[in-house]
Amino acid sequence: MHNVDFPYDQFSFISDSIFTGLPESDLMILKKNMITHNYRKNEIIFREGTYPNGIFLLNEGRAKKYKTDKNGKEQIFYICKNGELLGYHALVSGEKYFDSACAMESSIISFIPKDDFFKVLNESSILKQRLLKAISHEFGVLVNFIILLAQRTVRERLALSLLILRDKFKPEIQKTPVELNISREDLSKFVGTARETLGRLLHDFKEEGLITINGRIIILKNPDKLSKIANIL
């Protein structure tokens, strides 16, 4: 099993660090009216075009962020793992959600009301700085994602997507190879290709010894070569 590190930062949000190190008094305000809910797989967290009433903290599980075109076709542009925040961009701008978010698996998600969030934001220079940094970084992530879809071949996009997902599915204590437990439907929407094309490329990757497949589970056998295919080394 090869191991490779590549610049995840250009494809990953950093919102999981926004609350780290905040004064206990600020954290108490954020937690005061926090509501924690168990989300079922495929349950909507928020929907594009609606107004936010607060922000969401993903405590456990995974969620997908996606856009839907006029024909109802989804494009997944980001997958969140535990510790990440969702929905604060629209809240800060005072606009409708520009995207939708949905639980990819059984997940535990906390909701922080906007009044509590803005109370801390207005009084905490630390939170303001971190929020500004996160929003600026995420703009770059979205630009990189657009370039990825426009300039990379489907084969390159799949290789890079598998590496990104390996980071998203990696457990805190890794003792065994990372298992990417993702439906082919969601993977095709993340890569930005048809399921038939995805199926052919996954078969090719398997034949080339890059991955193993067990049902919907995908395990990366040669991340180094995948990185070369994705043109990130």
| Uncertain runs | 1-6
Largest sheet: 4 strands, antiparallel
Number of helices: 8
Question: What is the approximate shape?
Answer: globular
Q: How confident overall, as mean pLDDT?
A: 88
Structural class: alpha+beta
First-residue to last-residue Cα separation = 18 Å
Spatial strand sequence of the major β-sheet? 1-8-3-6
Cα Rg: 18 Å
What string gives the helices and strands in order? HEEEEEEHEEHHHEHHEEH
Percentage of β-strand residues: 15-25%
Indicate the percent of residues in helices: 40-55%
DSSP strand tally = 11
SSE blueprint and pairings:
Blueprint: H1 24-32, E1 35-39, E2 44-46, E3 54-60, E4 63-68, E5 74-80, E6 85-86, H2 88-93, E7 100-103, E8 107-113, H3 114-123, H4 125-151, H5 154-169, E9 179-181, H6 184-191, H7 195-207, E10 211-214, E11 217-220, H8 223-229
Antiparallel strand pairs: 1-8, 2-7, 3-6, 3-8, 4-5, 4-7, 9-11, 10-11
Produce a short descriptive summary.
The protein has 233 residues and is of the alpha+beta class. It has helices at residues 24-32, 88-93, 114-123, 125-151, 154-169, 184-191, 195-207, 223-229; strands at residues 35-39, 44-46, 54-60, 63-68, 74-80, 85-86, 100-103, 107-113, 179-181, 211-214, 217-220.
Overview of this protein structure:
- The chain has 233 residues and is α+β, with helices and mostly antiparallel strands.
- Helices cover 41% and strands 22% of the residues.
- The protein has 8 helices and 11 strands.
- A hairpin with a 5-residue loop joins strand 4 and strand 5 (74-80).
- The chain is globular and about 55 Å long.
- The chain starts with 23 loop residues before the first helix and ends with a helix.
